[in-house]
Design a protein that fits this description.
Helix content is 10%, strand content 51%. The chain has one helix spanning 41-47; strands spanning 7-18, 22-30, 33-40, 54-59. A hairpin with a 2-residue loop joins strand 2 (22-30) and strand 3 (33-40). Residues 2-68 form the Mop domain.
């Protein structure tokens, strides 16, 4: 796989929960860190994502926002 994004985090899929149109996929990237991605159900099917499989969380963002009250 070649990709321009520099933040690729390899891990194991721990959970795939499909909703009406969108799925939440949890990837354990090690050290107790879980990354959750919201993707379409169609993408889950096309990528054949399943618990126990290996996947990459690819982060491509110019900004990260954090807020508190």
């Amino acid at each position: 796989m070649k990709i321009s994004a520099r933040n690729t985090l390899k891990g194991k899929i721990t959970e795939v929960v499909k909703g009406a149109t969108t799925a939440h996929v949890k990837i354990d990237i090690g050290g107790g860190t879980i990354v959750t991605a919201s993707i379409t159900n169609a993408a889950v099917d096309e990528l054949k994502l399943a618990v126990g499989g290996t996947a990459y969380a690819v982060v491509k963002a110019s900004d990260v926002m954090v807020a508190v009250d």
